[in-house]
Amino acid sequence: MKLDKKEAATVTDAIRFWEDTRKISPELANELRSSYEVRNSNVDTITRYAFISAVSCGLLAFGALVIDEKWVELLRKKWEFSEATVGMGFSVVAGVFIYLARRRKRKYPNAEISNESYNITIALSVAVAIAYWTRSLGLFNGHYAQPLLIATVVYGLIGGFLASQLLWIAMLLSLVGWWAVQTYEWTGGGFRFAGMNYPLSMTLWGLVIWASSWLVEKTKPLMSFERATYTFGLVLFLFAAWMLSIFGNYDDLSRWSAIKQGTLWYWSAGFTVVLAALTVYAFRSKNDTLRDSCLIFFLANIYTRYFEYFWDRTNKGIFFAILALSFWWVGRKAEQWRNQEKTA
């Protein structure tokens, strides 16, 4: 088992304490010490960034070759393939990659980063297959709700089968996209669903996804996706709530532009109160993900309010000086928290 330096130091100290107090024998202590090794964080960092670069280049290449449908459509028209045939072909490609990914995961269970980057081919192949299948079956017709709903189900099933965090996140993205498009279609092309504009609707939808992480955690086959679901739902909730604090519940840009931003003070005040409450809870419960997310959006909230109310009234040099000091303060606090954790 590989541990980082901090984890390894904690385990080593614990083994030494047990050995000194004669709770374990020297033989068992040596056996425990040999059961783990220190992970090279520099190599891990280089590996992570290398795979991020590889995935980014792969996405760009796929987008240039497939998303714009130039070469696929040229081949389809040249060989007179139907859309169903193209959909079937990419389904076979996706199936082959799923089989290879499953076999690779069993062979290299600890190569998490490379395994996940390998799964990007599955996500892209499935996307093209769904696009052509829905077009061939007449489910598309300029509407994206049904393809996105199908993609949500397919990505969820494959993600669960391969225990892939990447495919699970693709499922969550498809789910959010489906909700946005479906509410648009339900309103007949409007931007207000059940009295809610998009920011308010997405705030509630993010809250639903965030809360669903509790259900995911309680479902044994899906337990490994709890953290991804929790983080995704939290970020979506905070981002949509931040947008809500700017636009209020307006669904018309011209009407929103005609009002003074001060008339929406209750939305920004509500967002600030929610952030403050969540930040306090995060510190008390020692929830790092919630704490860091809230602090980021707290800064975004402060700067947003400044641009709304004080941009034309404050010297720009003073503003950027305050900006620099605030980032220094955040960095200083982060350093203090890290030192406190090391001391503990």
From TrEMBL:
The chain crosses the membrane at residues 46-67, 79-100, 120-140, 152-178, 198-216, 228-244, 264-283, 317-334. Keywords: Membrane, Transmembrane, Transmembrane helix. Signal peptide: none annotated. This is DUF2157 domain-containing protein. It comes from Runella slithyformis (strain ATCC 29530 / DSM 19594 / LMG 11500 / NCIMB 11436 / LSU 4). The lineage of its organism: Bacteria, Pseudomonadati, Bacteroidota, Cytophagia, Cytophagales.
